[in-house]
Request: fold
Amino acid sequence: MLYTFAASLELNTPPNERWLIRTDCCVEPNHGRIFLDLAEGDHAEAMRGMMLLNALLLD
Reply:
């Protein structure tokens, strides 16, 4: 599921954004992390990233 969510995040990232999506699988089963690395890191970009993450979580 981790990779499915990361792929969805990648596919839904707007073309004008220069974000990197990284995954980190933990040793424990069914545990992992997804990182959304922002290009600029300013507040406006962080809000756009959070909107995308929240939209995908609600799907």
About this structure: Helices lie at 2-12, 43-58. The chain has one domain: 2-58. Residues 2-58 form one domain.
